[in-house]
UniProtKB/TrEMBL annotation:
Signal sequence bounds: none
One GO cellular component, as annotated: outer membrane
InterPro entries documented for this protein: OMP/PagP_B-barrel, OMPW
Protein's recorded name: Membrane protein
Organism: Salinisphaera orenii MK-B5
GO process terms (BP): transmembrane transport
SUPFAM superfamilies: OMPA-like
Alphabetical list of Pfam families matching this protein: OmpW
Length: 316
């Protein structure tokens, strides 16, 4: 256990999930509106990639017609796999007996960390081809139902007591936490720009890049050690924007249908996790001195995850 007096790092703010999705929608509408004003004499494309609306259709009619002939969707199974790293757990504002165990100020607990669990759910993607690109470029928005993920500790924090003795060597009897601390829900919408080098083949690989808003909510701490006094700690997670790298392949089927295997890497973000108002029981000392007021336990997670998706799709 090492003393840590360095100042706490600041984390970037994030836009709301609705702002991200709304921005994508405005972009799609703007593309469609611009395409609606094109004329055949100024555009060399043909077929479904060209908007065929007449001028009298107006902006709304042109946008609807463009989307009708240049959009696609897919839906299938989505698996979230977390690979991120974590800093050591940091204890701050310990009081009374806890201050004797952890020391004054802040402390880093050696060989500890935190993590997130994995989950499988349904996932859907809506795509729209970008004008004047021959359907080589498309914008995609991927959405999924809320993911319920476990918040976990790792390494020694799983099966070793975080405070086995006070600084004077008196055993506390505080048990290990176990792996699962609680749970949270994640609603991670993401927006990517996708490039397909071949668009008229049966097999169409693609590559993409974009951003994801790491929106989390509905946190719940249900660890029996942390809830021993009925004083449930609160779990707070920061909500940064992460970058997304994407690889996939479409397998064409009859009648504008297709199958897709898609992999997205999510990274370039740090998530701060904080457990506030942590009060635990010392079986050997609490009967005399009361509960142990640990204060705040936090960690910094270098977010890394992969989203695997197998889905069925249809082009309009």
């Amino acid at each position: 256990m090492n003393q840590d007096t360095t100042s706490e790092r600041r984390w970037p703010g994030a836009k709301t999930a609705m702002a991200l999705i709304g921005g994508a929608s405005l972009l799609f509408a703007g593309i469609a509106g611009a395409q609606g004003q094109m004329r055949d004499d100024g555009y060399s494309g043909s077929g479904m990639d060209r908007l065929e609306a007449e001028p009298e259709q107006g902006l709304i009619g042109g946008a609807i017609d463009y989307v009708k002939h240049n959009a696609y969707f897919r839906v299938g199974v989505l698996h979230f796999q977390y690979y991120g790293d974590s800093s050591r757990l940091k204890v701050e504002n310990a009081q009374g007996l806890a201050a004797q165990a952890f020391g004054e100020g802040s402390s880093r607990l050696d060989h500890t960390g935190s993590s997130a669990g994995d989950n499988t759910t349904l996932g859907g993607t809506i795509g729209l081809f970008v004008p004047k690109t021959g359907k080589h470029l498309a914008m995609e928005v991927t959405l999924a139902p809320p993911l319920k993920l476990d918040f976990e500790v790792s390494k020694n924090a799983v099966d070793e007591s975080l405070a086995p003795t006070t600084q004077s060597g008196i055993p506390t009897g505080v048990p290990p936490l176990g792996r699962k601390i609680g749970s949270f829900k994640a609603l991670p919408p993401n927006l990517t720009l996708v490039y397909r080098p071949w668009v008229d083949t049966l097999i169409q690989p693609y590559i993409g890049a974009g951003a994801m808003y790491l929106y989390t909510y509905d946190t719940d701490v249900n660890n029996s050690v942390l809830n021993a006094y009925g004083n449930e700690p609160t779990l707070n997670l920061s909500k940064p924007v992460a970058c997304v790298g994407q690889l996939g392949v479409d397998f064409s089927l009859p009648k504008n249908m297709f199958l897709t295997a898609d992999v997205k890497y999510v990274g370039c973000a740090e998530v701060e996790a904080k457990l506030n108002d942590v009060v635990i029981n010392s079986p050997t000392l609490s009967d005399t001195v009361g509960p142990i007021d640990v204060g705040t336990v936090s960690s910094t997670n270098e977010f890394k995850a992969v989203l695997y998706q197998l889905s069925f799709g249809m082009r309009f």
